[in-house]
Design brief:
heterodimer; A: 482 residues; alpha/beta; 12 helices; globular; disordered N terminus; B: 442 residues
Amino acid sequence: MEAAERHLDAMNHASYAAGFVTEIEADTVAPGLDESVIRHISAKKHEPEFMLDWRLQAFRQWQQMSEPTWAHVHYPKIDYQAISYYSAPKSASDGPKSLDEVDPELLRTYEKLGIPLQEQKMLAGVAVDMVFDSVSVATTFRKQLAEAGVIFCSISEAMREHPALVQMYLGTVVPQTDNYFAALNAAVFTDGTFVYIPPGVRCPMELSTYFRINERNTGQFERTLIIADKGSYVSYLEGCTAPQRDENQLHAAVVELIALEDAEIKYSTVQNWYPGDENGKGGIYNFVTKRGLCAGDRSHISWTQVETGSAITWKYPSCILKGDDSVGEFYSVAVTRGAQQADTGTKMYHIGKNTRSTIVSKGISADRGQNAYRGLVRMNKGAENGRNHTQCDSLLIGDKCGAHTFPYIEVANPTAKVEHEATTSKIGEDQLFYCRQRGLSQEDAVSMIVNGFCKEVFKELPMEFAVEARKLLEISLEGAVG
Amino acid sequence: MNAALDNILSHYRRFAASADYAGLPDSQQTAAAALHRLPLPTRRDESWRYTPLPAVLEHPFQPIALEDDLLTPDDVEQLRLTPADSPRVVMLNGFFIPELSTIPDDGSVEILPLNAALRDLSSDAFTRIGQLSGTRQHLFTALNTASLGEGVYVRVSAGTVLAKPLEVLHVSISFESEFIAQPRLLVVLEAGAQATLVEQYAHLSDTLCLNNGVVEVFLEAGAQLSHPRLQHESLRTRHLSSLYLRQAAESHYQGTTLAFGGAWSRTEFHVDFSGTGAHCDLNGFYLAGDKQSHGMHVDVIHNLPNCTSRERFKGILYGNSTAVFDGNILVQADAQKTDARLSNDNLLLSRDAEINTKPRLEIYADDVQCSHGTTVGQLDPEMLFYLRARGIPHEQAVTMICMGFAGAIIATCEFETLEQCANALLVKRLSKLVGLSHQNID
């Protein structure tokens, strides 16, 4: 056990590998939130009139709402008036048309993170729509995508260029007033991604966005809207990492997915926001609303997430299975260590006939981490032959951590079949012993066992992400077990 | 608050105001005060999320006085599940009836009316009453605790092994309907004592009452209690009962609750430990038919190391019924080597039945083994086909499968007469529904 303590110690003091602040001049509004801030954001983004009304409506509702307290997380009260709701890198105002025009400072930041943008063009198959703080600064492979008819741009651009599409779908899956954080997002979101895949098109490459939080004391409110028209397919990757800082940062994003008839959307996330120091000070508050609507028959939405960062994660990527024979999937690995807290899971609403859903959730808690799975499976009266299988397993590493499971199962149709299984345990002494006996180091043995524990989820990730996720997990749990 | 409930509350508030506080246990004083403070549970409360209270509140249930001539020795004879000479406690509408009870004088078990037991301020009953129910109390438990006195105190002294099962028979009967019964039971098994406690909630007339019962059980070191409970109240009754259990080191509890009756029923189980190495086995079965609503709420706190628990609940739903299973196992930071398993399986036999289940685990210790599992499904067509291929009529096949499904829980009662009674109830109820399920399955 002595070795364990040493490792634990080493890990606790290991600094955040991606922690650095890029110095870039930013155009930031003063902290505080009122209607004038919202008007300012809307004007800054040259939004159509309907957007401003939509935002104001959300804001007025938000003022009536109260912050949810049901999640299994604890944090000091957030002062929403102390947050600055808009920050755009200065360089963005000129609107760089190509990589050469992008601020070299920015590019260096991404290089540190291992995203060599210069090499992106050569890296076949991945287009990157980068969001640095709140404004998209570079988009690659636009042309190639445009040839296929795919629209892949920032959401503010989409509002200007494709207002009809935005107006038709924005807020249809996550209404403005869905919940406290979603309402806040609707009022103040500054940017995000918009994807539209036309009927019958298989998106020629995996779409990817890297988010960065940068400016001090700036909340980040992203909004993503992905529409897969009839018979289309898209795989979307979202990855996050953030510089080290002291102030807690609020991140309240909204992601809406819409899959029409026979369409498939695969949404993968690797989230590694700054988790805070060993006492949880300074980490990101990640309050995200993600929801997909399987609107058409035989549509398919799949969420895969690897959550290793953030001081607090509050996130329930959900599927509304409205179309007959539609399929919803949720695969998740959530790691909490130090003082991290995660309350994450999914909701599967079965509305259509023969709808199927699968939930695989793997929670790993180390140090004083608190990890909760919270999920709802609802079989409506019309969900004839609905099928759900849920598996949620928790792994405990250290005697001060916690793993919690809060499943809700509501069944109103007798032909529906729902199964839920959950286990909680620590790494088996016998498994460790077996590995050690064969000459593996303690570290390698733990890493192997943990990777095996998460395998079911990792195999759902696209290739590039799977490698990154495995590495991230290894770094995250370095020395957590002796 | 609600008008119907106001009626009851104001009665008990008056009662609490007139009582001589000096002589009352702390828990009763606290509860009486809480009646002014505690809100009516709503569906916004996590533990009442799926429990529809309007079923309870639409009737102006009245507190009533004891009418002991309502029940005769013949009635008891007809209802009893234990041998005639077994120790027996008879409760009528929440009032203890010593005349109809069988209280042994061999010193093996002490059975006292609660108000007599509480008279002595230094007594065991006085110090224990409300100790458990006071900790996680809601308005209804507070209501019961505030009106203590008419219940029973049972104590099995150290090392005693009760040869005969002890039966507690709760009977509700009235010619004026819409009343509230508040049975209260305090059971103490001292160190090393062993007993079987058979509890039965029965009715003799088609009463419309609100049963608001609280049972507190203390198992001292090494004590063993087998506790089968059968609830077959009238189908108009609203039944609420809360079991509070505290287990000391190496104690063993084996309990099974079978819920058949009541238009609305909610059974709560609250378990914690005061010593290590204890084992708790909680089993439950609910049969919810037309317009019935059953709730099973399990709240087990593993607060000490090396304790084990098993929670197994099953339900069959048909007609226009709803059921709730809400189980929570909390393993606190010090409770290493805990081994807890929670399972809930449901069979939906009709289109309009709805089940809401919520098996939760909350774990703060690492060296534990915990699991939970839930299933919801209909009758397996392959099973039915298998039986029908062997010449068994559809109705009988359905009954056989349901009996097998429920049988696994009913058998854990380990008390033959009660199991027979439960099986008979099940067959009777199932025979009515098979026509209905026939349409669904074929």
